[in-house]
Write a structure and sequence with these properties.
This protein has one domain. 9% of the residues lie in helices and 19% in strands. Strands 3-1-2-4 form a 4-stranded antiparallel beta sheet. The longest helix has 10 residues.
């Protein structure tokens, strides 16, 4: 059985001064190939740098991918766009847009 992939656009919807951007930068629109809208958020978040990939706390198995702006429904909406010109066949991946790797910011306390 072959899983059907779709093309999704992750579009920033929060205002630039929205406090939810406090610990995650607005990366603009990103296009991904994924299984579902939720999976599209996971694919985009996985392209970001994670604490476990660098020598920084919390590096003891505590992933930061769940804190990605792409996974926050207040910051990004997800729209299916299979007619955008990207192939539906291929791996789950970011297809267009720039996913920054300098997204880790210190928490404001």
């Amino acid at each position: 059985m072959t899983l059907r992939l779709h093309i999704y656009r992750l579009i920033p919807t929060a205002a630039t001064d929205d406090p939810n951007w406090g610990n995650a930068p607005n990366q603009g629109e990103v296009v991904v190939r994924a299984l579902t809208p939720g999976d599209a958020r996971v694919v985009a978040a996985a392209a970001e740098l994670d604490f476990t990939e660098i020598d920084a706390l919390p590096a003891d198995g505590n992933s930061t991918t769940s804190d990605s702006a792409f996974r926050n429904e207040r910051l990004y909406s997800v729209v299916q766009d299979d007619a955008c010109g990207h192939a539906l066949h291929g791996p789950r991946a970011v297809l267009d847009g720039t996913v920054r790797v300098d997204t880790i910011r210190p928490t404001q306390i």
